[in-house]
Amino acid sequence: MAISLSLPTAPIAITALLLLLLGLGRILYRLALPKPLPGSIPYNKKAVTNLLGDVPELFEYRAKYGDIFGLLPQRLRELNSPIMQLFIRPFARPWVVISDPAEAYDISTRRLKEFDRSYYLAELLCGLLPGHHISLMTGPEWSAHRRLVNDTMSSHFLHNVIAKLFFSETQELIELWRQKTRLAQGHAFSALHDIYAAALEITWTATFGSKTDAITAQVELLKKIKKIDLPASKEAAADYPHAPNSPAFDAIANLANSLEIPLAMPFQPSLIHSLALRFLPSLSSSVKLKDQMIRNSLNVASERLASQTDINTTSHLTCVVDIAVQRETQMAKKEGRTPVHDSRVIQDELFGLLIASYETTSTTLCWGLKFLTKHQAVQTRLRAELHTAFAPAVAAGLGTQPDIVTIPTSDLPYLDAVIHEIHRCGMTSVALSRRATQDTYVLGHFVPKDTEVFFLNNGPGMVQPGLATDDSGRSPLPRETKERMKGWTGEDAADFDPRRWLKKDASGRDVFDPLAGPMNAFGAGPRGCFGRKWAQLEMRFVLVLLLWNFELLPIPDALSGFAAVDKITHQPQKCYVRLKELVQST
């Protein structure tokens, strides 16, 4: 028998259905809310009542201050804990955030069976660099990829090959700033683009042996100009005409900037980045040009090696690509196969080295210029150390520079301390990460397998006084390591003070002590920064030569400030310089 609803009962049925759907909606909403990890890791209680977790407050902070990560130390202090959960991706497990230098060092160097490479970092990079070792778990394949470029970090290669390129390319930046200083007539000017362009030129030349000519083109343009229109007020910055970038420069810069795509994606970041690289015209053309340039460099390097009678010789090495080709040839011979010099793995290892070095070093140099401009006493002491160490160049007079051999080999403890403090306070990498490969405990708290763990470089113990930690929850640490990595505890932890890295030797001389406290810019252990030696040497060359040729004068408050923006790296929002050219006299 058919049943039909009469008019009086229809509204009741519809109301009941709506109530049922509303109830199901509420249930689904609750199920979709962020779920804390089991255990006692502190977290923001407000975040678990919002589908987006901590994201709204992070974006509100960024809108106010420019960066995102600055909120995390504040949150740790509110929770009074060096460890917390952060709900950053909808429908995903929370991240564990730690600001405890000793625990970060222990995880990175000793607890290698419990933690490995970060899946999050691999997601960000594998769209652009699918064959790079950074996306691989530690193991034989990861080691094989690293062997292709391991020799690029040897002291012999860095000091005898790469140092020459650092020197010559930095001279181009110096010439550019001579021209800008001539035209500025006492005004400050933005250094941001110049530093990034110079860092890209330096790294591309050192990696592939060719040039993008970004700095050269700008120098040639400014040499032809007698004067520029300047603001009436000395408080305002000078502005310059800009020479067109070469296609090579634009292609590399486009691809580096494209890493902001996966950074902004809450879901499938590597897939979305891969699609963008393939289908967005500006990016796909950049990929094609980049691949063509790298293959051309590899072919030239193969020809150089083929002209050698001994595949183990080093006499033909002119750049990093030569090492990769030589290593692939040696590995192929040992394994009884034909070498493949232009494989995707080799191309990605080379381009990965370029991207990592270019982005991080340029940002760190920008922070360095800002710190040295603000802290005039540091700049004065550093220049005095340079004049003492390179006394023959001072005595030689007009235009004489410290040379390629003495810059990397001279004992310069205050310079080393300054560079170390720039890394600590600049925080180019605000956080480093690992992934738990098994259920484990951190600072006494349970951390499930596959949880992403982040170590802050801008938090307590690093650039703020540390938070109290119950040591009973730590894994056993050697006493010396625990003492060294306990973190900066004084109220001056945030101050830029290179003296914290100096100590007296038996004769009363200042010596550089990199173990005076924590500085985690490069990470530690087998997954630490591969290019650390490269970055340190490049920083040394650029700072020595810039401070030898220019005095960084104070700049107007409107052009100063230390606000940052979190892009691919933790970049300063402003980086201006006002220069006085220095002439060495007898």
UniProtKB/TrEMBL annotation:
Residue numbers binding heme: 529
Stretches of the chain forming a coiled coil according to its record: none
Keywords of the record: Heme, Iron, Metal-binding, Monooxygenase, Oxidoreductase
InterPro entries reported in the protein's UniProt record: Cyt_P450, Cyt_P450_CS, Cyt_P450_E_grp-IV, Cyt_P450_sf, Cytochrome_P450_monoxygenase
Compositionally biased residues, Basic and acidic residues: 471-486
Chain residue ranges for the region called Disordered: 465-487
Cofactor annotation: heme
Gene3D superfamilies from the UniProt entry: Cytochrome P450 (1.10.630.10)
Metal-binding keyword on record: yes
Cited Pfam families: p450
Molecular function GO labels: heme binding; iron ion binding; monooxygenase activity; oxidoreductase activity, acting on paired donors, with incorporation or reduction of molecular oxygen
Highest rank taxon of the organism: Eukaryota
Family: Belongs to the cytochrome P450 family.
Protein's name according to its UniProt entry: Cytochrome P450
